[in-house]
Amino acid sequence: MNNYLNTIILETDKHTRFYDITDNVTDAVRDSGIKEGHIVIQPAHTTTGVFVNENEEYLLDDLMLHLDKKAPQRKGGYLHDNIAERDCPDDEPENAHSHIKAALYSNSSLSLILSGSRLQLGKYQRVFFAEFDGPCPRKHKNKRRCLVSILGE
């Protein structure tokens, strides 16, 4: 059994955006040399996620509109945003809405099947990295990491 680990680095440019990382994952599969196995994709941040869906502009816009209705950014509307009452860094952003979106509307990891050296996705399926709090305002935190682990033969 072989294991391969790859890190995808994304420089996010919008507060909320879905990045199609299917080609990045396919590149990791190629680089791994593994033909049969399992792929686990895991973002390394609590205000991001991963999911599989169709890369169709209007669908992605619909998803954004739904997310903004269900977990809107609002001043003073979330307990997590009471920065003065929490033990946290001075540069802590008010981003409870971003954590809620990541927790309820995406996945903290994603498992995919690898067979015949190919991702086993349906015709319209694509792998997305979801950014719910970008670009990060903290110094030296403008890049997002997404881990791709491939286990197999």
Structure description:
There is one protein chain. With 153 residues, the protein is α+β, with helices and mostly antiparallel strands. The chain has one domain (2-152): Jelly Rolls (Sandwich). Helices cover 23% and strands 33% of the residues. The chain is built from 3 helices and 8 strands; from the N terminus they run E-E-H-E-E-H-H-E-E-E-E. The chain has helices at residues 22-32, 57-70, 96-105; strands at 2-10, 17-20, 37-43, 48-54, 110-115, 118-119, 125-131, 144-152. The protein has a 5-stranded antiparallel β-sheet, covered by helices on one side. Strand 5 (110-115) and strand 6 form a beta hairpin. The chain is globular. The termini are close together. The model has no long low-confidence stretch (mean pLDDT 94).
Task: Summarize this structure briefly.
By secondary structure, this protein is α+β, with helices and mostly antiparallel strands. It has three helices and eight strands; from the N terminus they run ββαββααββββ.
Structure class: alpha+beta
Shape: globular
CATH topology: Jelly Rolls
Which CATH class? Mainly Beta
- Counted by DSSP, the helix tally is 3
Instruction: Tell me, rounded to a whole number, the average pLDDT.
Output: 94
Q: In order across it, which strands form the biggest sheet? A: 1-8-3-5-6
